[in-house]
Amino acid sequence: MSLKLETNNIGKVYVGTEAIGKIYVGTELMYNNAPPSTVGTLVNSWRAWDASSFTNGGTSCTDVIGGLVSGPYASGSPGAFFYGSYNNVVGDKYWVLNGAGSHGRRAGFTRPTEFSVSYWGNKTNTTPFNSERAIWSFNINGANSIRLARKNISNQQYFTIYSGNTSIATFSDNTSNNAWYNITLTFSTNTVQTYVGLSGASTTTLENTTILPSGTFPTGVSNAGNGTGFWIGTNSGYTDWLTDKWSSLNIYDGLTGQTQLNGIVSNGYQQ
């Protein structure tokens, strides 16, 4: 049975989509006029499977894209990985965070205005009761900090996003132990979206959207205490140590949209 809808010669209507869009005068095809998926440009990266990320036998890491020099941070390089270990198996390469001091650091990092942080991690155990483990942190703790953490609240597992010293979003961490997941956060001036996808899956899932009640995300760089930059596996106060395996962390200029993230997740944690 066909369905005919009189539109006074302003075009055809297609039924059966979730959103059938707007009807435009003088057109034969009417469609959903949603904006195209956005694409981020990779500007900084640590990648366990990429030889360009290594110095000193794989215990220190450098920036793959962005022109960082080699060598541990102590000798002047702005990128390093400390105290952890490295699994050097073809097809399964990753760093190990031991929860007792191992961390990655990229010093002097200045983020783009709109940016995305894409992390590949494997959670080896759950966060202990009423405690927190930092996944990554941008800038020193304080007004200019942005960070992502795992948090245990009364034995329930959550992700928590901080802007400055304030927790702006707390939502369920539905990732399983001992599985590789991509966790990507996209930041515009006042909105953060969190996508989570299992390695090899065809799609990623938008888990949370948070709009700041006022103001924008911090853009400044502070030089207090421990310096500036980007930390993996700890916050910039050197606490809340993470116990993940991690294969890469990538920072994009701009917002990585759903289509781009679906490709990242589908390619898996060794891409």
Molecular structure report:
There is one protein chain. The protein has one helix at 258-267; strands spanning 41-47, 54-55, 60-61, 79-82, 85-87, 94-96, 103-107, 115-122, 132-138, 146-153, 156-163, 166-172, 180-187, 191-198, 205-211, 229-232, 245-253. With 271 residues, it is mainly beta. The strands form three sheets. Strands 1, 5, 6, 8, 13, 14, 15 and 17 form an eight-stranded antiparallel β-sheet that branches. Strands 4-7-16-9-10-11-12 form a seven-stranded antiparallel β-sheet, with no helix packed on it. Strands 2-3 form a two-stranded antiparallel sheet. Residues 1-34 and 64-77 have low confidence and may be disordered.
Please name the defining characteristics of this protein:
8-stranded antiparallel sheet; 2 domains; globular; mainly beta; Jelly Rolls
Categorize the overall geometry.
globular
Number of helices: 1
Determine the N-to-C terminus distance.
49 Å
Q: Cα-atom Rg, whole angstroms?
A: 21 Å
Low-confidence spans? 1-34, 64-77
- Reading off the top of the CATH hierarchy, the class of the largest domain is best stated as Mainly Beta
